[in-house]
C-alpha cells in the first residue's frame, strides 16, 4: 500500500514533527518520508480540509458480541465501525457467549484478525464464565495472547478473588481491570441517583456504588503491590481517590467513556432508553470533574465503551430496557465536542494514543520516517450531525442521533492497509 498524505498537521508530542504541517509518504506500509511539498509520481494522494494526523487511536474497551450474539455485533461489523471512528486498535470485552475464559476463545479472535486493518486485542475473563467465583485460566490465556484480564461490566465483587488475581498476575506481569460498580448498592437502579431520578420517579444508582469499589480495590492494590486499571470511571469522589492513590505511587490507571464527558442525566427526562447505560450518565458537576481529570492527567485514556444492543433489548419500558450504547464512530467527536476550549487538542489525542498504550504496555509508533504507518486522519474542528444512515454497527443504540458533533474522522492507515471514511 502506497499513499501520499498532503499538508497534514501532525499531532505527535513524542515525535520531532509535532504541530508541523507536512506531507507524509507511505510506501509498503512504512513511513518513507516526512517533509514539505513532496511530489511523487504514481502514488495515490490524500488531502482534506484542516487535515490532522496522529498515531493510530486505541480503544480500551468495546464489546463485539462475537461469538454467540453476532446479531448485535460481529467482528467484521465492529471493525468497520472502529475504522470509521478513527481506531486502528480495539480491545474486546470478554462478555461473549460463551464468555472468553479459555485459551481457545482468545485464539478464536486472534486467528480471525490476522490480516485485518483494525487490530483486535481480546481480554480474557478474570473469573471462570465471568461469574466472580474462581479464577479463570489466566496464564494459559496470557500465553495465547490475551492483552489483559477483565470481567467486563461484571465487577469483581469478591475481594478475595481480586486479591488472588492481583497477586497471581504479577508472576507474568499481566494487567487486571475492574469495572468499579457495587451491585448490592446499585440494587436495581436504572440511572444516576439525584434530582433527575427523583423527578422521574426512577430508581437511582448513587456515585457511592463506584466509590466503594474503587476504595476497596485501592486497598487491595496497595496490599498486593499489584497492577489495576479502573474501567469507565464516572464519579467525582471516586476519581479523587484514584488521583490521590496515583500520587502515592500505586500501580493504577483509569479511563472514562467519551459519552460521559458530553451527556448528563438530564438526557433521561424523556425516558429514552438510548441514554440508559452503565455507569449511568452523571450530573454536570461530575462531568466537570472528569474533564478536569483529563487535564491533570488523573485519567489515562478515553474509551468508546461501545456496547451494541438490538432494538428488541432497547425498545422496552425504561426499567426493563438493556443498558449500553454504541460509540465507536462517535467517541472522538463526543470527547472533542465536550472538551474543546478546555482541553488542549494534543492532550486529548494523547488519551486516544499514548495513554491507552501505556495502560496496556503496547508500543506506539510515532509519525516518523522508518516507522510502520499506523495513523488516524481527522479534522478536529469540522462539525457534522450523526444519523442512523451513518452507522456501520449492526446495532443502532446511539445516543447521538440528530446531535451536532465536532471532530470528523477522515480515515485510518494500518497493517499496510487504508480506509477512508464515507
How would you characterize the overall build of this protein?
The structure is a single chain. The protein is of the alpha/beta class. Helices cover 28% and strands 22% of the residues. The protein is built from 14 helices and 17 strands. The longest helix has 17 residues, at 208-224. The two termini are 20 Å apart. The mean pLDDT is 97.
What is the CA-based Rg, rounded?
Answer: 21 Å
What percentage of residues falls in helices of 4 or more residues? 25-40%
User: Quick one: biggest sheet?
Assistant: 8 strands, mixed
Total E-strand runs: 17
Individual helix count: 14
Quaternary structure state of the chains depicted: single chain
Layout: helices, strands, pairs:
Elements: E1 3-11, E2 21-27, E3 30-35, E4 44-46, E5 52-55, E6 57-62, H1 75-84, E7 87-92, H2 103-111, E8 119-122, H3 138-144, H4 159-168, E9 176-178, H5 183-186, E10 191-192, H6 195-200, E11 204-205, H7 208-224, E12 227-230, H8 236-247, E13 251-257, H9 259-262, H10 284-295, E14 301-303, H11 311-314, H12 331-339, H13 345-350, H14 354-360, E15 375-385, E16 404-414, E17 417-420
Parallel strand pairs: 1-4, 1-5, 6-7, 7-8, 9-12, 10-11, 12-13, 13-14
Antiparallel strand pairs: 1-2, 2-3, 5-15, 15-16, 16-17
Helix pairs in contact: 2-3, 4-7, 7-8
